[in-house]
Amino acid sequence: MTLVAELCPCGSGSLFAGCCEPIILGAAAPSAEALMRSRYSAYTLGRWDYLRESWHPDTRPSRVSPTGCQWLGLTIVRATTDSVEFIAGFRENGKIMTLHETSRFARSGNHWRYLDGVCDVHEAGRNAPCPCGSGKKVKRCCSQT
């Protein structure tokens, strides 16, 4: 069952059906980065059950609540075997925001799981590069819509 017949929300440039969808539907992620990308895609699609399930059992919350934001784009800064540094842009309450996080992952059984992360969230400046990845400034991109 394909959820989205278009490019993957994670920004890989691949079709969703061959990128994050199989992982969201239960396939094991081949790497921590692939799991992180699938979690970003799940946030954009509102797949809250998957987000909770993809959390490591040692740190998993009792539930994952929907957010009121619109996700704009994902940029991977650096990935290692068990960590991923990324920047994700989102719109919330009319403001363009950036989430800069370094996430840690650990294996649980045959699956990678999100363990925890250190993050910084702040409003994107008008003259900053837009966090959607367009290459334009915020004032000429996502803040106009």
The CATH topology turns out to be Nuclear Transport Factor 2, Chain: A
Tell me, rounded to a whole number, the average pLDDT: 93
Q: How large is the count of helical segments?
A: 3
- Order of strands, widest sheet: 1-2-3-4
Which structural category fits the helices and strands?
A: alpha+beta
Largest sheet: 4 strands, antiparallel
Rg over CA atoms: 15 Å
The share of residues in extended strands comes to 25-35%
Report the strand count: 4
Identify the CATH class: Alpha Beta
Number of domains: 1
CATH architecture: Roll
Determine the N-to-C terminus distance.
32 Å
pLDDT < 50 stretches: none
Helical content class = 10-25%
Characterize the overall form. globular
Order of helices and strands: HHHEEEE
Can you offer a commentary on this structure?
Helices cover 17% and strands 32% of the residues. The protein has a 4-stranded antiparallel beta sheet with strand order 1-2-3-4. With 145 residues, the chain is of the alpha+beta class. The model has no long low-confidence stretch (mean pLDDT 93). A hairpin with a 2-residue loop joins strand 3 (95-108) and strand 4. The chain is built from 3 helices and 4 strands, in the order αααββββ. The protein has a single domain, classed as Nuclear Transport Factor 2, Chain: A, CATH 3.10.450.
